[in-house]
Amino acid sequence: VLESMDKAGYSVAADQAFFSLGTDTGGSIRQPASFCGVVGMKPTYGRVSRFGVVAFASSLDQVGPMTRTIYDNAMVLSAIAGNDPLDSASLPHPVPDYAASAESGRLDGIRIGMPDELFVEGIDPAIKDAVMRAAQALREKGATVERCNLPRVEYALPAYYIISCAEAASNLGKFNGVNFGYTTKNPQNIDELYTKSRSEGFGWEVKRRILMGTFALSSGYYDAYYKRAQQVRTLIIEDYRTVFERFDCLLAPVTPVTAWKFGEMDADPIKMYAADICTVSVNVAGLCGMSVPCAKDENGMPIGAQLISKPLCEETLYRVGAALYGR
């Protein structure tokens, strides 16, 4: 999934497309946007219809745009957001004029938090320094920037992988070679049709997540894994609700590292999963988040700053993002 989203990101970075649409389940818009030096918006859960999208994790997936500028991103989101009766999770709220918020002006009165828990151990010093410089730039624009805490967000990553894999195992069950997706050639019976279609059609990473999800939902393990992950999710939502009583948005890194070489993480899926540590809690809590280019490292690799706000506050992200990056 991340590989395909990277293609969407660099198609915009290379001026091959005015914008690209991605699906962000745990960071798959914001991470590629950060890697490619473009703007990536993960809207509030339900803000954009997912009708026609192949579901990964239904309670986490959200469609959003990647663009070269903040203003372009706001224009695209204005066009694709809104209620859709064909998506039961689609929100009924009216769509504001996002482009009007994408003005590079002062931020007087805006309160921005920097959660210590999202500045994870092992983060690339170049990324940490870039986000700190972004914080100073926002202060110079008039914003109040302070450190804050999300005490239980450290559990977002394991909770995310249990929930997402469980939902993937359920959602991908319909790809059996009959109604959806790939169909194997010349099956001898119905069992062979199902088995070979799924074995040949799904890649190794998809199979790994289906197996993890099936285990988490199996008899005897449901309460220990899936149910507990959902309880942790509620605690993370409460942490964000509390912190947003003090702040209008949050500032954090997007990823602990800059873009790695193609295939470099294939042999170490745990390390690859850990790259999501700064982004997954936004999906778990149903918030909106955006990656904004803010610097490059010594090798010229792009670095993104992540802005996070409460549900249906994309306008705040565009306002702060435009002040940081320009319109």
What does this structure look like?
It is a single chain. This protein has 327 residues and is α+β, with helices and mostly antiparallel strands. 42% of the residues lie in helices and 14% in strands. It contains twelve helices and eight strands. Strands 1-3-2-7-8-6-4-5 form an eight-stranded mixed beta sheet, with helices on both faces. A hairpin with a 5-residue loop joins strand 7 and strand 8. The radius of gyration is 20 Å and the shape is globular. The two termini are 29 Å apart. The model has no long low-confidence stretch (mean pLDDT 92).
Task: Describe this structure in a few short sentences.
This protein has 327 residues and is an alpha+beta fold.
Secondary structure elements and pairings:
Blueprint lengths: L1 H12 L5 E5 L6 H7 L2 E4 L20 E5 L2 H11 L17 H4 L9 E5 L9 H16 L3 E5 L7 H16 L18 H12 L2 H14 L5 H21 L5 E5 L15 H6 L5 H5 L3 E9 L5 E8 L4 H12 L2
